[in-house]
Amino acid sequence: MQQWYHCPQCGQNVQYGQSQCNSCGYQMYWQQSIQKPMQQWYDCPQYRQLVQYGQSNCLSCGIQLNWPAPQKSQPSPQYQQQSSWSQQQEDTKGFDWRKSKAHLLLLSKFIHANCFEDFARHDYWKDCWNNILGESSKQAIKRFVDQGMLITATDLNDLLTYKYKVTELKDMLKQRSLPVSGRKDEKIQRLIQADPNGMKKAVADLSLLQCTQSGYKIAEQYLVAEQEHRNRVECEVMEYIIKRKFREASLTVAAFEQKQLFPRGIGIDWKQYNPDRHIEILKTIFESKPKIIAQLENEKTEALRIGAAMMALWGTNMAKKWLPANFETGMSFDNDTAARMFLFPALRRAALEDYRKSGLQYVQILTTPESCNSCKKLEGKRYILSNVPELPNPNCTDEMGCRCVYAPCVD
């Protein structure tokens, strides 16, 4: 039986073991089905990259490492996190959840009216929350309520915002012969003013919680601190990329991800992360210039390559935040699309290399429903690996750029 999962970037189905998502090109890393014993990892004192306990030298900077006798790991000075589910049986009378990163993250989910059952719909995610909290999520939420951090959400605007999508609000406005223009909050206000009783009935089935003023302040401080930390790490990674220190950049991202409560990616074991694949992808980004953006001015190429490299390492399809202010490509593509045209060839080349190593001889090209006519002409054919059409397609006219991918042909 084949195992299918959702791509963490676009949500499309991907098969277990697949090297990349066929829809968006996201690079997939799969954890081995046979788990290895947990290894202890630390930060290199010189470059703060991941090093394994007992390792003689840092693989990034080469510094010699001297290890003390093994000790039990100490809790972070910033957050105290319970380490196992069995600890829920402990007397929590003196437990300070304000020092628990997991509890602060949970509280932040209620900055806006929310329901735990909705953002942790499946048993898998409920178990994950229970594990990182060190107690049941129900118990943690009850503590928030008892201590005045959460209250029942009653604001009609918040309840309508939670329940309805913009398209649904437009339908509700049309039914009442009201204008459908404006932002989501403007649509909601228009509905409340025109039909307050009807809107109350529409959300009568909801039972949501929301942060009090005190809870909001604590949650907001946590989110700001987390974002500031991520921004610092992103700047560090970007500096490594500019200096072409691709290994250091890759390992810095891995060090960040392994410390997250919910690390990015499906089945990725960031503690066992091997940067070699990302290094090759980054090299391709900086060593090639796809024909589809051949008319791009040279001085703008470097900025887009850096943006594409950051996209590759952080697993996103947008580069805007890493490009210079007021940056313009001077092309028909927007900034994010132009950066993707540097990233996609690197991903496609990596996929072809995987196919060669597996002994595959032929590939096909898959398009999207919105692909241009030039791209659609490439579909439905078998191509020998030694002679495949270039992707992205240089003749693509789609304003979103070429999104074609290579896929294996298996007889």
> How large is the radius of gyration?
25 Å
Distance between the termini: 19 Å
Overall residue-averaged pLDDT value: 82
Strand order of the largest sheet: 8-7-9
Q: Quick one: biggest sheet?
A: 3 strands, antiparallel
Number of DSSP strand runs = 9
The ordered H/E elements are EEEEHHHHEHHHHEHHHHHEHEE
What is the count of helical runs? Answer: 14
The parts where pLDDT drops under 50 for at least 5 residues are 29-41, 45-50, 70-92
Percent of sequence in beta strands? 5-15%
Structural class designation:
mainly alpha
In helices, the fraction of residues equals: 40-55%
What is the general shape? globular
Q: Could you characterize what this model shows?
A:
With 411 residues, this protein is mostly helical. It has a domain at 156-202. It is built from 14 helices and 9 strands. It has helices spanning 101-108, 116-119, 123-133, 137-146, 156-163, 166-175, 184-194, 196-202, 213-242, 246-258, 276-287, 298-314, 335-357, 373-376; strands at 4-6, 13-15, 41-43, 50-52, 150-152, 209-211, 362-366, 383-384, 405-408. Strand 3 and strand 4 form a beta hairpin. The chain is globular and about 65 Å long. Residues 29-41, 45-50 and 70-92 have low confidence and may be disordered.
Considering the chains and any ligands shown, give keywords for the structure.
41% helix, 9 strands, 411 residues, two-stranded antiparallel sheet, mainly alpha
